Amino acid sequence: MNNQPNSRRTFLKTAATGSLAVLGMPTIIPAHAFGANDRIRVAVIGVNGRGTDHIAGFSKLTNVEVVTLCDVDKVILAKRADEFEKKYNRKVQMEQDLRKVYDDKNIDAVSIATPNHWHSLAAIWACQAGKDVYVEKPGSHNLYEGRKMVEAAKKYNRIVQHGVQLRSSTAIQEAIKHLRDGLIGKVYMARGLVYKWRPDIGNQGNSTAPDTLNWDLWQGPAEAREFSKNYVHYNWHWFWNYGNGDIGNQGIHETDLCMWGLDVGLPEEISSAGGKFLWNDCKETPETLTSVYKYPKEGKVIQFEVRPWMTNKEDGVEIGNIFYGDKGYMVINGYNDYKTFLGREREPGPSGKAGGDHYLNFIEAVRARDKSRLNGPVETAHLSSGIAHLGNIAYRLGRTLKFDPKKEVFISDAEANAMLSRKYRAPYTVPQQV
């Protein structure tokens, strides 16, 4: 990667350079001060699952062009490129290594839909390479790297959006305003619900990685392990080395909304209990998890439930949130539907159902070079992911934990603090100084 400014942006006067951790890749800050009619060129990194929605979401926007698809699996990559050509009647560039995407100075923004353990490092590298970033939830695999992602976005003046679509839902924005305006009174508790159908995954053991998969690059920052079909391409969610269980998967939408609705940051006290009660498979993360996050100084609490199989709904909700106040409660079903119930008789109050376009919100902020326009800014990515990590740590240690939300460390607890980060595998290292 060289130090030359973006040739497509001839008006660029200067570029700041530096070293990208370990790899020796320079930092480029092209400022992206281009007009509203200039085309924004996007690369999608990770195209097996959520990445397919990223491709469609950006491709439908005016003056936005998906120019590159990147995936460590050549089979998946070729399939998506073929689908892209048939749907949009043009070819798209293919890359297996995201570092080559960052080398391309004609790419303005990257959209990251890799497994969790890659999210923060991919975003940090993108910021250092002068790219704006849309990153899937959770924004981080652990608390430490989430904070480093925030620092990178600030240092390199990048627009970084967290992929929690409900932040752009006009109905949910309206619901939050009702909470702020006191519709249900003093809001003291938020409940997050994740009741998803998660079956037995068995145990396929270790085997040789396919020649078409770059297994080293797939593992990236994680501890090196032998290849297993248990991990690729979805069930990595249920292994601590790569995923964070369902509270760190589907649950990030709901942890984010719990914190947004209560208007809180990270908690001071965390307890979690759960386990595997259904399947004798090779999952490491709990099937069922109950976490409680306390805010004693603010008189607030978050309750979070993960259930994997047969279960009741709560006021019709399987995936969503419930907020409790001293004058009523609010039910949010999914990403764009809310209802309120007021008083002791639970009289129906205001309700709404409407979506939004989270990709468009990101692009509008990129065009304006204005982070304040983001509905899901990088700080929310760190917090909503971070609270899930804290709950998982409490579960894994089997005890209630005390936490300092300002210093972002557990209080007098070396064992818990050791779990706030991980041992990174060179050259895929999240740097201490971004």
UniProtKB/TrEMBL annotation:
Annotated keywords:
Signal
For this protein, the record's SUPFAM superfamilies field holds: Glyceraldehyde-3-phosphate dehydrogenase-like, C-terminal domain, NAD(P)-binding Rossmann-fold domains
**Can you tell me where the transmembrane regions are?**
none
In terms of InterPro entries, this protein maps to: Gfo/Idh/MocA-like_OxRdtase_N, Gfo/Idh/MocA_oxidrdct_glycsds, Gfo/Idh/MocA_OxRdtase_bact_C, NAD(P)-bd_dom_sf, TAT_signal
- The signal peptide annotation in the UniProt record is 1-33
Q: Does the keyword field hold Nucleotidyltransferase?
A: no
Question: Gfo/Idh/MocA-like oxidoreductase bacterial type C-terminal domain: from which residue to which, for each copy?
Answer: 204-257, 359-429
Domain Gfo/Idh/MocA-like oxidoreductase N-terminal per the UniProt entry, residue ranges: 40-163
Keyword Zinc annotated: no
PROSITE patterns assigned: TAT (PS51318)
Its name, as the record gives it, is Oxidoreductase domain protein
